[in-house]
Every structure is written in structure tokens, then in C-alpha cells.
């Protein structure tokens, strides 16, 4: 970390009644890389507080900067990415091993069952952290037809 963190003035205040306003990127906050924060399981705004309370459960708020995590929703995104990427790699590796070495099936089971369980489980938390940090960084929200106007 070089310590060169940009501080910008807020350009648009959040409107009351905006359900995701608490989880939007605050322009006055230090810029933390969403990939670094997500992979480390840290807060997407300050990069210090823990994002998870348990293995995959998102904490209610950041213990360092009190960013509200209750509006966070990564949905099925991490699982879909992991199924596609890890499935492609592990099945491809199993096919390569079978076609090249033709080992007995018990050896396939010994290699690829732990690999097929361990790799996806190991990737779930970092992928979920990165997706949540990217949602925060890119101000992702549900689509709306018209912006809400007060008055
Ligand atoms: Zn924080």
C-alpha cells in the first residue's frame, strides 16, 4: 500500500427513501480496490473491517467504519461463477488424466472427489467478497423505471 488514497467531494447526496443508499460508495471515502478488499474478506469502503461473520454469512455492518451491510445481496453470483470455472477446470483435468494415463477408477475418485469439493468450497468466500465489493464500488442496485422524487 502506497498510502496515496484519493479523497473526493460527494457529487450527489443520497435521497431519503433510497433503500440502497446505505451501501452505496461514498465519494468522500478512501478508494479501496474491490478485488483486494473482496479477496481478503474486508470492508469494501475502508478495507479494514471484516466483511464476513462466519464462513459465508455477511456481518451486519463494518466494525471499523460502520458501513451497513444489511442491503448486500450477492445472490447466486458466486456459485454460478464457481460452477462454471471450477467445473470446467476439474472436469477438463479429469478427462485429460483419463485420456492420457487411464488410471483405475478408484484413483480418479481419490483425486477428483476431494478436488471437486475442496476447490469450489475454497473459492466461495473470496468470490462472494469480490462480488459484494464490486457491487459497492460500482453502485450496483436493482433497476428502476423512474428515479424517486421527493415532494
Ligand atoms: Zn469499513
General description of the model:
This protein is an all-alpha fold and 151 residues long. The chain has one domain (21-137). Helices cover 43% and strands 0% of the residues. It has 3 helices and no strands. It has helices at 34-40, 77-101, 105-137. α1 crosses α3 and α2 runs antiparallel to α3 (105-137). The relative contact order is 0.17. Mean pLDDT is 81; it is low at 1-19. The structure holds zinc ion. Zinc ion binds at residues 43, 45-46, 48-49, 62, 64-65, 67. Residues 1-10 have a biased composition (Basic residues). This is DUF983 domain-containing protein. InterPro entries: DUF983. The chain crosses the membrane at residues 79-99, 105-124. Residues 1-21 are annotated as: Disordered.
Order of helices and strands: HHH
Indicate how many domains the architecture comprises. 1
Q: What is the number of strand segments?
A: 0
Q: How is the biggest beta sheet arranged?
A: none
| Distance from first to last alpha carbon | 45 Å
Q: Which percent bin holds the helix content? A: 40-55%
Oligomer: single chain
Amino acid at each position: 500500500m502506497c498510502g496515496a488514497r484519493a479523497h473526493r467531494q460527494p457529487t450527489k447526496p443520497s435521497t431519503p427513501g433510497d433503500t440502497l443508499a446505505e451501501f452505496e460508495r461514498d465519494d468522500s471515502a478512501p478508494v479501496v480496490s474491490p478485488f483486494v478488499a473482496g479477496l481478503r474478506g474486508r470492508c469494501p469502503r475502508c478495507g479494514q473491517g471484516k466483511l464476513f461473520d462466519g464462513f459465508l454469512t455477511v456481518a451486519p455492518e463494518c466494525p471499523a467504519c460502520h458501513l451497513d451491510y444489511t442491503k448486500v445481496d450477492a445472490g447466486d453470483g458466486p456459485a454460478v461463477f464457481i460452477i462454471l470455472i471450477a467445473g470446467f477446470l476439474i472436469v477438463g483435468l479429469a478427462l485429460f488424466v483419463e485420456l492420457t494415463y487411464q488410471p483405475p477408477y478408484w484413483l480418479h475418485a481419490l483425486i477428483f472427489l476431494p478436488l471437486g469439493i475442496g476447490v469450489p468450497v475454497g473459492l466461495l468466500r473470496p468470490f462472494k467478497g469480490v462480488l459484494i465489493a464490486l457491487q459497492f464500488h460500482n453502485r450496483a442496485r436493482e433497476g428502476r423505471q423512474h428515479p424517486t422524487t421527493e415532494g
